[in-house]
């Protein structure tokens, strides 16, 4: 930083702009936000279905194969999908508290991602073995579980591996269930070291790093199963009818986030301006760098932006769509903001206009939401590279699912890793200027 200029004697001192300081929100308040989200989600379920219906739906959810795309709102019912989401989020929050993990951007992203995918692919049965495998890895390394909590939470993307082996191959349950659990534990055990290495592959420009890692593990698992002539049926089970109540739930949740941010940070305009200058490359903890209040404001805005894209594209809300929206919103605390996701969405939309896929098709809608894993490319290199990233992602994501047979729920994270690994070196070689963020003084 340059040395300050000396003022002439008796010269009026120029007015300086005071640096922005965000209000500190206590850890307890952050935890309460997560608990309130869990409670709101849990209670919402009972507006759709009665207790007995929810229990029956939860049974169907937990005994399904959960292969992409398995909409739990259709397999079980809407109420049971909400309760399943609330239970998984509650488990995550409790585990984080027990391991003394700070409620910051990474944890918020993980909890919302788990809650979102609990609408289509994750449940207690297929998630616990993977978390247990990560815990076993931490025990073997003689290190605290909190150090590996993100691989444990995000690694539940491999939940279908557990469910498919347990229920998908018509084996006797006395054999298939232990095998499915063992496969989940083994997958969880190897995830932490792989995730720490694969981040170098895409240089942090793919926010779903564990998704890419899970894609590799899922691909290996599927290759071994195919060696025994075992194959997964392509699944596309979706909620048959839209429900206005789902829109109300999301709107209330996101409006609450925005109001919290506006009320608790009177300088939210400067705070949000700061946040929107962040490229978003891993690791970008917005709670630590910009404050909890402005981060929630950003999350709420991303929620409404995602719903707006869905409405403009002519889509309807179902389990996978809620999963996509929740993931975008969660990563609003960990790398995504309105400014760096818009070019990615624009690239997806452009690809659908040019290629064979319909803008309103479920695959295209999910790509528009989950492709925002590449938001750091737009944040770091600019709008046009961001549009190009989204455009390429659309082509790649429609072709990589067969590699892991639907075993990896984060198919877009798998695709995003390849797109970032290809595109970023090319942009660097062309001397595309990177965005640099500087504190206002």
From TrEMBL:
Keyword Transmembrane helix in annotation: yes
Source organism of the structure: Proteiniclasticum ruminis
Name this polypeptide is given: DUF1576 domain-containing protein
TM regions (residue ranges): 33-52, 72-94, 101-118, 175-195, 207-226, 246-265, 286-311, 317-335, 347-371, 377-397, 409-427
Keyword Repeat appears in the UniProt entry: no
Pfam families: DUF1576
Region span, Disordered: 1-21
Keywords linked to the UniProt accession: Membrane, Transmembrane, Transmembrane helix
InterPro entries found in the cross-reference section: DUF1576 (IPR011470)
